[in-house]
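Table 4 source record.
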Amino acid sequence: MVERRVIPVGNERRIVLTTERLADGTWAVVASILEATPNGERVVDLAVSDERFATEADAEAAGEAQARCWIDQNVPRAA
């Protein structure tokens, strides 16, 4: 079963988490960032981890942490 969750980050970005329960009962997560642009949206797909999680909540937390780290490292802050 695949689940998607969208987390707003300010006015211009959203974190999209896609989780999936695997055959062995563990969970995997893939994180993306959607950024508003003058012409639409830009999607930044983050690296897919081989890590597996016991619960969907754990998978989502890891994906959100990965995305927020990417935002902190790649998005300029207003002065």
